[in-house]
Amino acid sequence: MAEVVVLLDLWVSPFGQRCRIALAEKGVAYEYKEEYKEEDWTNKSPLLLQSNPVHKKVPVLIHDGKPVCESLIIVQYIYEVWSDGAPLLPADPYARAQARFWGDFVDKKIYECGTRLWKLKGEAQQEAKKELIEILKLLQAELGDKKYFGGDAFGYVDIALVPFCAWFYTYKACGGLSVEAEVPKLAAWGRRCMERESVAKTLYDPLKVYEFVCHLKKKYGIE
Fold first, then answer.
1. Residue 58 near residue 10 (C-beta atoms within 8 A)
2. Fewest beta carbons less than 10 Å away: which of 11, 132, 145, 188?
3. CA–CA separation, 34 vs 173, rounded Å?
4. Residues 170, 209: contact at Cβ < 8 Å?
5. What is the distance between the alpha carbons of residues 88 and 148, in angstroms, rounded to a whole number?
6. CA dihedral in degrees (148, 138, 140, 181; nearest 10)?
7. How confident is the model over 120-129, as pLDDT tens digits?
8. pLDDT at residue 189, as a whole number
9. Is the pLDDT of residue 152 over 70?
10. pLDDT in tens, 83-103
11. Under 8 Å CB-to-CB from 59, ≥6 apart: which residues?
12. Per-residue confidence (pLDDT) for residue 42, from 0 to 100
């Protein structure tokens, strides 16, 4: 009997995009189910509430009826369950631990700080901008002159970070942060990642992401 793989997701979610990229890299066929129609965060499907009763949010990977929650945990699950395709994580235990460290760093820093950048104004926004620049410079230093964070192999840290490349335009338009000017090597890395089919078919046009953010700002009165 063929296995059943379902991904509960939201099109613009960088966290869900991680899962989509990992599934594409592994060549896993799955059913995509879009949550939050019309960006109504209160309208959660019974399947989502049943599958993720703790956090009640996407993404959720449902594999043969068993739900897996939280994006980086899902990526690690994909790495462990499907052996074909890209390895995603290094074979060496120390290198694997380092990849998980930087993935966790991205998880804890980028989204929260980037959200403050487009939500806030004045001094608070400038603080968020300064903090995000420092975060991106740390990541650029870790990347160094490598093609990808894992060297020549596209993998876990790249998957954790690359969805945010679609948000770089929003960071500049809303907060005046030019990723190209501040961290040119990281910007070049993002362009290299976009040459991969798994990334190119998953990430949305930065202008579409910006329109989504403008919609949110208007909806919540953050103009």
1. yes
2. 145
3. 27
4. yes
5. 12
6. 150
7. 999 999 999 9
8. 98
9. yes
10. 888 899 999 999 999 999 999
11. 7, 8, 9, 10, 13, 15, 16, 18, 19, 69, 71, 74
12. 73
Beta bridge partners of 66: 63
Mean pLDDT, the chain, integer: 95
The per-residue DSSP string of 164-212 comes to GGGGHHHHHHHH---HHHH-HHHHHHHHHHHTSHHHHTTSPPHHHHHHH
Cα–Cα distance, 115 to 67 (Å, whole number): 28
Q: Give the C-alpha distances (Å, rounded to integers) separating 139 from 2, 50, 96, 179.
A: 40, 36, 17, 12
**CA–CA gap between residue 1 and residue 59 (Å, rounded):** 25
Q: Which helix (H) or strand (E) holds 20?
A: helix 14-26
Cross-sheet strand order for the sheet of 60-63: 31-34, 5-9, 60-63, 66-69
Between β-strands 31-34 and 5-9, what pairing exists: parallel, antiparallel or unpaired? parallel
